[in-house]
Design goal:
Blueprint (H helix, E strand, L loop, with lengths): L19 E9 L6 E7 L2 E5 L6 E4 H18 L25 E5 L5 E6 L4 E4 L1 H9 L3 H6 L2
The chain binds zinc ion (2 copies).
Length: 146
């Protein structure tokens, strides 16, 4: 990475998770301790870990984000990872306030237990947790399909 910066940088491109990664922050990933990056997904601000690809999402951005990812991933044929319970009783620290995050049961498709900090109104999403939620078959299709 010693090459001089181009005078006409390309516009930033979303990565394969459809995350537009911005500047590094001082906040630390609760899973792998790498620094989180400011990032956006469809103009919604998130904090993103470039190492484990988890992300910290504001609670009110969570459902719109799931809806958006569903439109992206269902068209690319991404597949659901096998369920991994190895993190069932881990304890994560909130990247923003360092308090222990608490379980946030998500009752929709995917049936996962997320980690949240109510104080900061954020949810931590592992990459495979987000995929499970987004790609879980929508129950309504069971009835609409014949
Ligand atoms: Zn990480
Ligand atoms: Zn917090």
């Amino acid at each position: 990475m010693d090459e001089p910066q181009s005078s006409t940088p390309l516009p930033p491109q979303p990565n394969e998770d459809d995350v537009l990664v911005g500047a590094e922050t001082a906040h630390v990933c609760p899973v792998c301790q790498a620094n989180l990056f400011d990032a956006t997904i469809e103009n919604r601000s998130v904090r993103y870990c470039a190492k484990c690809r988890g992300m910290l999402v504001l609670i009110f951005n969570f459902l719109p984000l799931v809806e958006y990812m569903r439109t992206v991933w269902s068209s690319t044929g991404a597949s659901i990872q096998p369920r991994d319970n190895s993190d069932a009783d881990r304890k994560l620290s909130c990247p923003l306030c360092a308090k222990i995050m608490i379980g946030y049961p998500y009752g929709g498709p995917g049936n996962v237990n997320l980690d949240s900090c109510e104080r900061c109104s954020v949810i931590w999403l592992d990459r495979n947790e987000l995929r499970r939620i987004v790609l879980a078959p929508d129950r309504t299709t069971l009835y609409s399909k014949r």
